[in-house]
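Researcher: Here's the sequence for the chain we discussed earlier.
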Amino acid sequence: MKEFVAAAKKIRLRQLRCFVAVARKKSFVLAAKDLGLTQPAVSRSVRELEQNLGQELFDRSTRGAELTPRGRSFLAATESGLMQIFQGVQSATGEDLSDEIVRIGALPNVCSRFLPAIVKSFKDEFPSVKVRVIPGTNSDLLDSLRRGDTDFVIGRLSTSEDMRGLNFQALFDEPLVFVVRAGHPLSAGRATLQEILSYPMLLLPEDTIIRQEVSRYLSGQGVSALTDTVETTSSDFQRAYIMQTDCVAVIPRGVIQAELDSGAIVQMNIGKDAMKGPVGLTTNPDLRLGAGAQILARRIITAPQYAKTGIQYG
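Model: Thanks. This is the structure I predict for it:
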């Protein structure tokens, strides 16, 4: 206990701010730029913190800095503590934290999968911070991020041109799957592509990144055009239309994961693992995020079930 008290007394707010900045940017150089400090000053502060704790918080390499398991645990506690300090300062200065709104742009499949649990956990801890989840297509979400209408976006990795000037942090790979309702003539799961294409197709619109992935796959199989199609970005419509018709749908698996688990919808054996792309958190480095947005973004990125890779675009 005495050792804990002694270590805690040595920790400075400067050290914690530097630690959180490096954890967010995965780079001492980028963290220093964010903080308006020199890189040696940031490195020294983090090293002092590690010495005070007696723990390595980062695995350092030429590619950057990755949190160790102890570092991830410490980050969650540190962000919570800094948020409480932030709330205290706002209270003392007469500012109202409830004025902050965290605006998340998210693909429909993200809205229905892991995001609700993370938002609930965040709201349990910070009930006065409003959270607004804005669904949309990948291109619409990226446009909103560039305009500053959202704080960050959870969507698929788009082309280098579409992502230019934005930062992308991969969370997981999401496959696109061919599916039908249980009881469909093809619900045994084994069918040729030609048999599948003889049925009406349910797809996303042609201007979406997901539809472009589907088109590339079909083109590689010698299919140049589809004639009998219904297009939508609505997850609710997709699920209902699959269940009520003999269509074959090609959609992100996460949209209908619950129905796949229950057996109400069946995945076909076509295209398995052939159409897979990273889904991640995209930020605009020109936007300054509020404390609540920073903490919620970090919690999404550090969710333990995801393998993460940071990518920055020119």
